[in-house]
Amino acid sequence: MREGQSLALSGRIRVAEASLTSPFSGKACAAYRYQVTAQRRNVGPDNDTRQQLCLLGFALAEARLDCGKRSFPILALPDVDTDLREIATGGDWGDRGLARIRKAEEEADTVDEPRARGALSDAYRFARAPRSQDLFVASTRSAGPEIGVVEDAVPIDEPVTVLAAYNARTRGLGARRLGGLKVFAGTLDERLRALDEEWRKGLQIASPLVGVGLALLTAAAWWPGPG
Amino acid sequence: MNEGRERFIFKVALLLLGAYGALYLLTVSVEQTTTRFGGIGWIPIIIGVLALAAGAIVAWATVITWLDRRALQRH
Fold first, then answer.
1. Which domain of life is it from (chain A) (predicted)?
2. Tell me, what's the pLDDT at B41?
3. Beta strands in chain A (DSSP E)
4. Is B9 in Cβ contact with A213 (below 8 Å)?
């Protein structure tokens, strides 16, 4: 394997010591990322109720991808496929999101959204484990039912497929130049079958919608005239 | 941290540029359609915008899925 080579490997992620617990689903995991969005607190004279990022956090434990004969340390915060992502509005997660916002309001310093997103983007490129960061961006006037939560969790001891770039110096898995380090649920063959089906289905839905949309928006150009 | 922050600002700038271009094209379409068909021209415009927006969202997700599939297949 050479430096920077893109790899797709199937295996199970093992953590060196204690695993992490994802803040909303409560699952034991090797890494997680969450964001909490809600209506911003300060509304202007136009009664603007724009949704805004309030909290963003991520964590990475010392973890390795165990492929059987060989194992590779994980050198960046993994992005995940949709199977490993959970999205919720309101409910139990909304209440917990609000409680976290209120706690951060009292205890944490505020950072602006570009800085918070920038920190996450940097962690997707490289993160020295163990690493954990919680960033408070803004407060909210929303109640629990209006709070949106997104959580990614990288499972431990379950079959996963990892798409990454090989780092020859550390013999580990880092982020690819484009697309970072991404974790998919299941083995390589299972994932390929599922993605094949997904993209064909997506194409079948997107093509007529885009076609109809473009045709209707350009009707003035092609609709036959009275004469 | 600064590199990631700059990347984020660049992405937002690109997104705003894209939104500006789409709005400009929509304005041209509305003008042409209502000039040609009058008030009834709003019906295809509204349906067209909704269909195109939904199609664009699905197309975006499909492109990501296709790129992932291609990357997994190659390696």
1. Bacteria
2. 92
3. 6-15, 20-21, 28-39, 51-60, 63-66, 71-73, 79-80, 85-89, 131-136, 148-155, 159-167, 172-174, 182-185
4. no
